[in-house]
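Why does residue order matter? Because the sequence determines the fold. Keep that principle in mind as you read this record.
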Amino acid sequence: MGQEELEQMTEVYNMLVTYLVNYSFQIFGAIVVLVLGVFIGRRLSDLVLALCAKKSLDITLSRFFASAARIGIITFAVLIALPKLGIQVTPFLAAIGALGLGAGLAMQGLLSNYGAGLSIIFTRPFVIGDTVRINGVFGVVKEVHLAHTLLTNEDEELIIIPNKHIVGEILHNSQTDTILELSVGVAYDSDTDAAMKAITEKLANVDGLSQQRSIQIGIEEFGDSAISIAVRGWAKIQDFHQIRFAANQAIKDALTEANISIPFPQREVRMLS
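Structure:
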């Protein structure tokens, strides 16, 4: 190591020692302020969550308010601690503003997700536990974050949808259940009233079909070889396909027990001589 490098290291060491001697109490005070800020921020966040729960506020709004309170307290503590370390707040804020502007231009997509997330949180088009359909994807809302919304479906898949793809799009919110549509054909000489009555009574015993919303049933169309009966009900999204299978079996059993046949397509073949 050369003499010049040794002198530079000695100079840096002396500057560091001088800084620690002159600002030791300020550094200690800054650390105390930061620790208190983090502690108070966490406690205030817990207090806000408890208060929101007491007022039966939506969990997404509760988490947002709690996070905003915690971040606000910690930011305030940082602004108090910086001058104690000899750092001027005004240039620091200006630098953060410039960095924020550059980052904003570079992350427009992410910021649009955050903006859409705030819109979802405050307008509340859905809440956790609702069954929604968005752009052909449906599931139960599990979590709502600023950047994205999490859904889960019957297969226990976790579906992540960026919030910018939710706001401004057509949203179907059936709350607890989703629509289940079925159809079956009966012969033209069948008693359609008896068929619909038998199907309705049988479907009442299918687990998972909503009992709060009555089943809708009626003649859908007149086909070439059968009268098509349509059935509309509401099923829990977590067991949607299992409920659909059970409902189809119930319809088949109902028609069999009522001696109503389900015709198959028929074609008339003529031999020309």
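The beta strands are 131-134, 137-144, 148-152, 158-162, 171-175, 177-186, 216-222, 227-236.
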